[in-house]
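note to self — DONT lose this again. spent like an hour looking for the file last time. sequence + predicted structure for the chain T wanted, 125 res
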Amino acid sequence: MQALSTPASSNAASAMPPLVEFTPQAAAKVAELIVEEGNPALKLRLYVTGGGCSGFSYGFAFDDQVAEDDAITVTAGVALVIDAMSQQYLLGARVDFEDGLEGSRFVIHNPNAQSTCGCGSSFSV
């Protein structure tokens, strides 16, 4: 399964390499959650905000809108959307879903993060 990343206004023929890797495990979990929400138009939005114990925090939200400058990565028919401001902090990151002893959660492996907090939802660059 291949990921595709494009600005919202371009077409697949001019596809660029993916901004982030959106793993099949993460896409499958998002697909389950979209079914539960009952709105097939939803996409998972990943964003970065200031704050958290390490300076920046990751956030996730469902969204049925895509802005012109959003980056979109599609895996197994599920879209991950990243706003223009967050893209610089997430370049080369991998979004995965883990189901383990510590519970189920989305995990971001970010090569741009110089340090992260213990919970994994906050980082510094």
